[in-house]
Amino acid sequence: MRNSTLLAGAGALALLTAAAAAPASAAILLSDNFDATAADVLNWTGDTTFTSTGAPASVDLIGAGGSFDFYPGNGSYVDLDGSTGGGHNPAGQLTSSATFGPGSYTLTFLLGGNQRGAAPDTTTVSLGSFSTALVRSSSDPLGLVTLHLTTTTGGQLQFTEQGPSDNIGSILDNVTLSTGVPEPASWALMLVGFGGLGGLLRMRRRHTAVAA
């Protein structure tokens, strides 16, 4: 009974601290899984959420069981280095149709390697004054990226594949931009909560050892 009580308390504590660390007023501002358009569109021009702006370079829309489905089961997704070739820099670029003001945001997306044995690709993610570069090797899986970002200028959200373009780029999917990031006090509370969770589990092990 004592062990069950400890575990129940640990679970409740973890849930409470996770809830406290969540942004209080988060709202989704942008979301695109690229599934609204059928795949296998070379030199894709974009949809209502994103536009290909890397001319003369481009992006391709692939996947969904088509001729170029490197991550089966993920629907349609974007190859950030399209089919124009020519050694252009950037190799491809997606820019959001919407413009966002200065402030703090949480950005999540899936990013994976090109899966075709090419050299590693560098993707720059930017929103106004914020910018970060992500490198993916060819065999890297389609993995979740979460960025808590702050921009002092605001602007459009961009994914830019660095050149030279060779028709083989990193894979982008499931982009979501939300307002807000966890406050520092919330992060501290979450750490305290997980510390308490560790203490409860240590107490459980001690009681188990004594009983034995």
Compact overview of the structure:
23% of the residues lie in helices and 37% in strands.
Residue-averaged pLDDT, rounded? 84
- Roughly how much helix do the residues carry, as a percent range? 10-25%
CATH architecture of the largest domain: Sandwich
**CATH domain class of the largest domain:** Mainly Beta
Describe the 3D structure.
The protein is an alpha+beta fold and 212 residues long. The protein folds into two domains: 1-22 and 183-212; 28-181, Jelly Rolls (Sandwich), CATH 2.60.120. The protein has two helices and twelve strands, in the order αββββββββββββα. Strands 1, 2, 4, 5, 7, 10 and 12 form a seven-stranded antiparallel sheet that branches. A five-stranded antiparallel sheet has the order 3-6-11-8-9, with no helix packed on it. The two termini are 15 Å apart.
Characteristics:
Jelly Rolls, alpha+beta
What's the structural blueprint in terms of helices and strands?
Layout: H1 2-21, E1 28-32, E2 41-44, E3 50-52, E4 59-63, E5 76-79, E6 92-100, E7 103-112, E8 121-127, E9 130-136, E10 143-151, E11 155-161, E12 171-179, H2 184-211
Antiparallel strand pairs: 1-12, 2-4, 3-6, 4-5, 5-12, 6-11, 7-10, 7-12, 8-9, 8-11
